[in-house]
Amino acid sequence: MITLDDVDRALIHALHIDGRAPFTKIGDVLGVSTQTVARRYRRLRAEASLRVVGLPDPQRPGQAEWMVRLTATPHTAQDLAHALARRADTAWIKLMSGGTEICVNVQTPAASDHSLLLRDIPRTASVTAVSAHQLLHRYFGGPTAWLGRANSLDATQIAALTPVHEGPGKPLTGDDAALMAALQRDGRAGLAELATATGWSAATVARRLADLRAGGTVFFDLEIDPALLGATTQALLWMSVAPAHLDRVAKTLAGHPELAIVAATTGPANLVAQALCPDAAALHHYLTHRLGALDAIRTLETAPVLRTVKAAASRWS
Questions:
Q1: Which of 138, 195, 212, 248 has its CA 20 to 30 A from that of 100?
Q2: pLDDT tens digits, 14-44
């Protein structure tokens, strides 16, 4: 496994803040040359599977987001997970527990026929159980992702790299399909490359990107194996919280550095979170000390993540 040094970690933090920040700007803020930044970025892409991806806000108007839990027969679970990963309406997929449970994040237009939930999955013979939970509100996750990759820069450096988006945001339209496809392949693609992909001029691409980023319609996420940053143990946490306390508890959890996702959801568990910890002992300490101190959490189910099959827009091996 690749070993990260201080410059690597600082670069990762910089891309966490602004995935499209120019290497020249990152180099100035980090105090290293542009060539060093570019070289480190290429190394992290090749050896650490680092990717910047441009993604639409999953909770923008007209969109529905679901967490689907599937139980499949042991010899078919991995094949099913990879088949689901090939679908455009799945955002991330994780193999859970003993390798027979799959958790799938599904993003689909709210007015769609929900074919994956209502037709495709139920017809899969190897699936023995299904539960679907709509995400009602994200308290943390997406544009504000896991802070374990964002602890290398000081306040001055963070301010220098934080992008300022001016003007009103614009919604996505059908004309943006080619642009979004290109950004999901490579969120750092240059304006000339994006112009080729869309058939627009570079100036038009720049204006459209600025419009989409201004309102948060499109954001840039950073993919990297969390184990490289010291988080070798992952788990999804399904919690039941008294409705009167749900907002307060969720906002508290959103400030926990161990968590990458915090969202209110439908179903018996009305709050879901993803924990990233150094090891099993650290996860146990988090559950018993941090979560255990919140009396409003009435029940807790911990589902260990064995492997990420798909993260954001990409498919992992």
A1: 138
A2: 999 999 999 999 999 999 999 999 999 999 9
What pTM was computed for the model?
0.86
**Would you state the structure tokens that stand for residue 75, as one six-digit string?**
């010899």
Q: How many CA atoms lie within 13 A of 285 on its CB side?
A: 9
Per-position DSSP letters for 93-116, written without gaps between them: EEEETTTTEEEEEEEEETTS--HI
Buried b (16+ CB within 10 A) or exposed e, 49-61: bbbbbbbbbbbbe
Over residues 176-189, the pLDDT tens digits come to 999 999 999 999 99
Residue 40 CB neighbours (<10 A):
22
Q: How far apart are CA 104 and CA 237, in angstroms?
A: 14
CA dist., res. 189 & res. 52, Å (int): 9
Structure tokens at 304: 């260990």
pLDDT band at 316 (very low <50, low <70, confident <90, very high): very low
The answer for residues whose C-beta is within 8 angstroms of residue 36's C-beta and 6 or more apart is 7, 27
Long-range Cβ contact pairs of 94-97 (< 8 A, separation 24 or more): 94/234, 94/236, 94/305, 94/306, 94/307, 94/308, 94/309, 95/305, 95/306, 95/307, 95/308, 95/309, 96/69, 96/236, 96/303, 96/304, 96/305, 96/306, 97/303, 97/304, 97/306
